[in-house]
Design a protein that fits this description.
By secondary structure, the chain is an alpha+beta fold. The chain has two helices and two strands. The protein has a two-stranded antiparallel ribbon with strand order 1-2.
């Protein structure tokens, strides 16, 4: 649903476009009325926040992702063991 209000946004392009193209920041309405806040300060703050989020989630840390065939074999083995245990009891 679209409201009739306009918002100011800052769009920061990503240096690494493998996953994300841009980060979009919505500027609070009361910030623009404060004295001393310039457009450059807003852009600098948006870039700082984007960089800090990238540092919080480093790219080098990856989850273990096995091949789907391995997960299917592991699931079949577990089901087979459960079946065997219920058969023997």
């Amino acid at each position: 649903m679209v409201k009739g209000t306009s918002r100011r946004v800052i769009v920061v392009d990503s240096p690494d476009t493998e996953l994300f193209e841009q980060a979009i920041f919505i500027v609070r309405n009361d910030v623009l009325s404060k004295r001393g806040v310039t457009a450059q300060m807003l852009v600098d703050e948006a870039c700082r926040v984007a960089r800090s989020c990238a540092r919080m989630h480093p790219q080098g840390r990856k989850c273990f992702r096995a091949a789907p065939l391995l997960w299917c074999a592991a699931g079949a083995a577990v089901i087979g063991l459960v079946w065997l245990v219920t058969l023997l009891l």
